[in-house]
Design brief:
Layout: H1 4-18, E1 23-28, E2 34-35, H2 38-45, E3 49-56, E4 59-65, E5 79-84, E6 89-94, E7 118-124, E8 129-134, E9 140-144, H3 146-154, H4 167-175, H5 181-186, H6 196-206, H7 219-238, E10 279-283, E11 286-290
Parallel strand pairs: 2-9
Antiparallel strand pairs: 1-7, 3-4, 4-5, 5-9, 6-8, 7-8, 10-11
Helix pairs in contact: 1-7, 4-7, 6-7
The protein binds a DNA duplex (14 and 14 nucleotides) through residues 1-3, 58, 84-88, 135-139, 177-179, 183, 186, 188, 195-196, 245, 284-287.
Length: 296
Amino acid sequence: MPELPEVETIVSDLRKKILAKKIADVEVRLPRIVAGDFSDFKKKLIGAKFKSIGRKGKYIFLEISSVFPAGHNTSSKKAYLLVHLKMTGQLVYKDKYGLVAGGHSDSTDPALVPNRWTRAIFYFSGQGCLFFNDLRTFGYLKIVGPDELGRILSKIGPDPVLEELDINALAQKIKARKTSIKAVLLDQKLLAGLGNIYVDELLFRSGIRPQTPAGRLSLPKIKRILENVNPLLISAIESRGTTFNNYVDGAGKSGSFSQKLQVYGRGGKKCRKCGSIILKTKVAGRGTHFCPRCQG
DNA sequence: CCTTGTGTTCTCCG
DNA sequence: CCGGAGAACACAAG
């Protein structure tokens, strides 16, 4: 599951590889993953370049710069390629297309692209391809203008890696919620970028049980959680993200933060801090892992 | 049956 | 009956 650290790793990888390369062609193998106007999709992309790549929370947006000849009317509004990877989406850049004969592979090895989960391919002039792979096809690609992009990004809360969080204001909001602290932290409208893995890890670091009603936590405890968010995400980015099932970086390689997970996916195993058995339950409809001793 | 991110819809409560 | 909150569902495939 790509969450903020994984998306950040992909974005920084792609910035080094695809910016200012002319898009020679776009192949869409599963039209369903293109949201919005399909004919507009190719029209806007082919012949253009990606001028910059941005991110907020788990949303990725690539600024499209047209490359019309001088004198051509380019006054039309800016366009962006908006990408959401949802649970199993990948964006993988390769210098060369087709490491597999026939351009089709059943291997889950992301080094072997395209494969049967490749949904779209961007071919750059000269050399280089960007593959959008998605096993479960929840992810999408969409051409959006500045207005729509702004509308989407304004619906989600601050990004704890890109912005300084207003801890006091956020703590007040959390205090007002009656649902579990885990459900609150998963809510992208409060804070953008946390998903199931990092919420479990964050609550372990903070010594708080995921099922605790948010409003029953003391303000100091809530602030402690919020102060832990940035360091946790930064350290995950330094490990290039968590590969648990499906995630790979912009070059198709795994992240190593999986080795540093304290609770996620460790149900039944010993807590690395106190030796207690990590419990697995369901909170907010999600698989939830916690240490009964370290987390109150 | 399980896994999960997000958008939508349903249900509950005051 | 309304608004808001929170829960449940839909989506998909292995």
